[in-house]
Design brief:
The protein is an alpha/beta fold. 30% of the residues lie in helices and 19% in strands.
């Protein structure tokens, strides 16, 4: 498995942390200890230079690279690589004061003061000029340095809105490119409603939450504007160091950026994962974290990603953050590897003495030394990763995809539905994903514009917005033999948030064989019942509950699998299947309970021939994931419960660490994990 600019990057599993060397320059004994401890913990990489602009350029045009030269040299001397960051995430005070136009403007027209981080305007020409200049200097200085492994653009780009004239001018230009003229824009935004019609581009200001088309386009523009800034940051790096790969660290996908478009311009996707372990249901947290890992793997069409940040112990910003129980760090780290990561990295290496994150967990605490529980756990992870080097050359072949679309989420957030309290789009996507995860069936998490052709099953919960061409691609997928699942709140609006006419979901009416007439909305305390139809093809049985949403649909060519069994719409279809071409299209009209989803997807997987033949039925609390290189299949078994669990595995497996033949039943302790290897029969 070779990809441009990533061959060296993927030659081993990376293990390291964010290292703020510059915070300890006046304590050489601490710096010397750091490098000894890094080797003791089996680290091979450090993320450096993040938030260091004020140290690199303490005064305008006066640069101080000596400390970074020393750091890069010491990393190389100790066999460590550097993930070198550009410093745009935290501009120095002198820049904000000398060039106030670099600071953001709020909706009241007031310019923000210099504070916190990410406190700049992405449109500011002077800010772009300054960051491009220092990025070029970094690239020129370290282009041949043996420690340089990967460029890290900025840190956690966000969609911070700015209402300055630069942003408004750019937004209006963006709209002109999108719509061409005001008549087209007015039609797309339905501006005759409430007399919102525009007669001049200068009249458009993105401050009116009642104009959904405007606000969705404003979010699209913000995302595109940040992307444009990222590309400007990357340009000198690409020019000077074309063979050094580039990434930036994504976050959970609720930051208002369309990461799919960003990923197109990165050599490897990476992200910062901070699950809230031990605060409630660890199994749900494990599922959600797996969902995010699979999303980041999917950004680059199944290629490995990097876990850029995780906490080896607690965070300081979650309100409540519990210590990781024995085994949890190893388990969480292996979960990332199991779902496609080629790294485990932490924030932070050494706890800061001051600042907002001084009580955030770290590999090396304020106590210091290597005799802490956390350091021992990190060392164990590092040793484990060294023995799993061959995993770097594997991928995950997912037969299933769950569509989780960012622009669809933005549109749903603005939608003023009769039932707006419990939309919960992302949570709903995860509930459908869970049915595959708990069966050990790998699933990609994709966008509505992703290629569907390589999947057997595609699930699209609440695909409220059907952008142009989406319905046609879904129809072609089903017609060619694919299995498609849709739900309530599907196909209600187009990409401009204009409703479709002719019964929802109009563009998919032929594919699904149904149309919707009305929707009932239930309070959080209300539930209803649905009953399985006799002899249904998915073998659904008995009654199930639903809540929040119940769409009243009519079948045209679809067959009924289950019907409502409560309220005045008892007897109406609640779940259907439509044979279309060589494939099947399912529709779930209500927000059902988890038991229905489990039974429903068991039937769908059985009919579609999808499963995991390497392991038996997984007990509650255990997940399984497989990475393969065509010759070996690495099977990761993970127990997210606080009790011992047993899993039956296929014969012919061996332990990935010791090479010993595996028993027919593998026993996992609480928060335990195991990695097995299965040789391919034709290897």
């Amino acid at each position: 498995m070779q990809f441009p600019r990533t061959q060296r990057l993927f030659s081993r599993l990376l293990h390291g942390a964010d290292y703020n060397y510059e915070q300890w320059l006046d304590t050489p004994d601490v710096l010397a200890e750091d490098f000894r401890l890094m080797q003791a913990a089996h680290c091979n990489v450090m993320s450096v230079g993040i938030f260091s602009w004020a140290m690199l350029e303490p005064e305008e045009g006066k640069y101080a690279f000596g400390w970074l030269d020393q750091l890069m040299d010491r990393l190389a001397e100790h066999g460590l690589s550097a993930i070198l960051s550009t410093p745009s995430a935290a501009p120095p005070v002198w820049l904000s004061q000398a060039y106030p136009e670099t600071r953001r403007v709020n909706t009241n027209g007031q310019r923000d003061p210099h504070r916190r981080r990410q406190n700049f305007c992405f449109s500011s020409p002077i800010y772009r000029q300054k960051i491009t200049a220092i990025n070029r200097l970094l690239a020129e200085r370290y282009k041949t340095h043996p420690a340089l492994l990967l460029w890290h653009l900025s840190n956690e780009y966000g969609s911070y809105p700015c209402h300055c004239e630069y942003c408004y001018t750019n937004f209006r230009a963006w709209l002109q490119r999108r719509y061409g003229d005001l008549d087209a824009l007015n039609r797309a935004w339905w501006t005759n409603f409430w007399s919102h019609r525009y007669s001049s581009w200068a009249q458009i200001e993105p401050v009116d939450e009642s104009n959904h088309g405007l606000m969705i386009d404003w979010q699209r523009f913000i995302s595109d504007n940040v992307l444009d800034f990222m590309l400007a940051e990357a340009a000198p790096l690409r020019e000077v160091t074309p063979d050094v790969p580039i990434t930036t660290n994504f976050m959970q996908p609720d930051v208002g950026l369309n990461y799919w478009r960003f990923a197109e311009h990165l050599d490897v996707a990476s992200w910062d994962s901070y699950p809230r372990w031990h605060q409630g249901d660890d199994l749900t947290i494990a599922m959600q974290t797996a969902f995010y890992h699979d999303l980041h793997r999917s950004y680059k069409q199944g290629r490995p990603f990097l876990l850029m940040e995780s906490s080896p112990t607690v965070t300081n910003w979650q309100g409540i953050s519990r210590l990781k129980k024995p085994g949890m760090l190893k388990l969480a780290s292996l979960q990332a590897i199991a779902h496609g990561s080629n790294s485990v990295q932490y924030f932070q290496w050494r706890q800061s003495r001051g600042g907002e994150e001084k009580f955030h967990g770290a590999v090396v605490s304020h106590l210091g030394g290597k005799q802490t529980r956390v350091f021992r756990d990190v060392t164990e992870v590092g040793s484990l990763l060294q023995r799993l080097t061959d995993v770097t050359q594997t991928t995950i072949a997912a037969p299933v995809a769950v569509i989780y679309d960012f622009e669809n989420e933005w549109a749903l957030q603005h939608a003023q539905l009769p039932g707006s309290l419990y939309k919960n789009y992302r949570e709903t996507c995860q509930r459908h994903y869970r049915s595959f995860w708990q069966r050990g069936v790998p699933a990609d998490v994709i966008s509505a514009v992703s290629d569907l052709s390589k999947y057997r099953v595609v699930v699209a919960p609440m695909l409220y917005m059907l952008a142009q061409g989406t319905a046609e691609r879904i129809e072609a997928f089903v017609k060619a033999g694919g299995t498609f699942v849709a739900t309530y709140l599907t196909g209600m609006v187009n990409e401009s948030d204009l409703t479709f006419l002719g019964g929802y979901p109009a563009p998919l009416r032929r594919t699904l064989g149904i149309y919707a007439e009305e929707m009932d909305s239930l309070t959080d305390q209300q539930t209803g019942r649905i009953a399985a139809c006799d002899g249904n093809m998915l073998e659904l049985r008995g009654e199930y509950q639903f809540q929040h949403y119940a769409e009243l649909i009519h079948t045209e060519t679809a067959h009924v699998l289950a019907a409502y069994d409560s309220d005045f719409y008892a007897g109406n279809p609640a779940a259907t299947v439509n044979q279309y071409g060589d494939g099947q299209a399912y529709f779930i009209a209500a927000r059902t309970d988890d038991q229905f989803l489990t039974d429903f997807y068991d039937g769908v997987m059985r009919c579609a021939g999808v499963g995991n033949e390497l392991v038996g039925a997984l007990p509650m609390g255990v997940s399984a994931s497989v990475r393969s290189n065509g010759q070996q299949r690495y099977v990761f078994l993970m127990n997210f419960s606080d009790r011992e669990q047993q899993i039956m595995v296929q014969t012919g497996m061996r332990g990935a660490m010791d090479g010993k033949p595996a028993d027919a039943f593998v026993t996992l302790p609480p928060y335990g994990c195991a990695v097995l290897v299965k040789e391919s029969e034709n290897a």
